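look at this one:
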Amino acid sequence: MPHNDSNPSRSKLRRSTGRALAGLVAGAAFGAASAALALARVRKAPPPRAAVPEDRRPWAAAIDLMRTGVCLVDEANRVLYANTAARALGLVDDVEIVSLTLRALLAQARRSGRFRDAELDVPSPAVGEPSAVRARITPLAEGVAVIELQDISELHRVERVRRDFVANISHELKTPVGAMQILAEALKDAAEDPDAAARFADRIQAESARMNHLVTDLLELSRLQGAEKLPDPEPVSVDRIVAEALDQTRIGAEKKDVTLKVDGVSGLEVLGNESQLVTAVKNLVDNAIAYSPERTTVAVTTSLDGPAGPAAESRTVRVGVRDEGIGIPPEELDRIFERFYRVDAARSRATGGTGLGLAIVKHVAVNHGGRVEVSSMPESGSMFTLMLPARSLPADAGAPNSAAIDRAADA
């Protein structure tokens, strides 16, 4: 029996849906609109011999590839069309609008006849933070409306990190400044007591050194994270990097009676900036010393991974720093390279740590085409490994470290 298009209600819905789809394609603001509109115009040409199935029409394929969620609903909030991105956000399904908040916004948009823009929190299906979604609703004729949905969870996360960074900076700077103010007042009152004055002066010096360390780390991290180009890379000896890093951390190790040990392959080279690489290894050794008990050992090892021969260019230099400290709980491993994040905040502040050392290591590694990894268990120590592309393959790659490195470790 032939299909009857004379039903006024059905014809009205078809006209309304057709106008809505045309408006959707013409008004999509995220880059696919022009292409979709062009494809829609092509459809006005003489029809092909066989009709294109509804689910394979060009506009549907184009809109379904968009990262922005797009949904078309009728006056009863029934879903006429929803692309993959819209359904993935959990606010709509194939049949109806799931979110009550989104339904309320639709009603407001229809009453006013103007578009509505709002941010919605979408509960996570699992335990975790809700997703943030920006919704823009544009009412069309006869109750039909277009909904555009954009996941802005990452924008919220970045803003939260920025706020936390500012708050942490304020706190970290306020602490030594406040301490120095109190100590200066105490020093003034202790003018008649040389011993007390000397103690207060020592404390002021320590607090000022801590603030200077913090500011220096902030400037270094800002430079590493910014658009500033890495200084002209040069061949750098890994032996020299390790020796310099140990030399800069030796006093701290001696204060805690921590033994520094060096082992591994000598003669390795990487391409980069020696100052930054020394800073990265120094920060790893400093961190290992800070979290190690007294009379333990911090071991620095160097090795070369990857195929030999013609493929030597793809080899990786590994600089590992192992301690016998308190270890890191598994749930903390993903966060230890964040700025100001501390597994043990009290211990870090007691040792003068800024909470920026590992973040600097991560950015130095990335800027040199490498990465940094950590393996650890509570009460079993930790192993941090800085991995960098090898510049060349030494002839004695299998030999132990040279006597020069051993002398540097014992100096």
About this structure: The longest strand covers residues 382-392. The chain has three domains: 8-151, 152-228, 230-410. Confidence is low (pLDDT under 50) at residues 1-6, 20-53, 393-411. The CA atoms of residues 184 and 204 lie 7 Å apart.
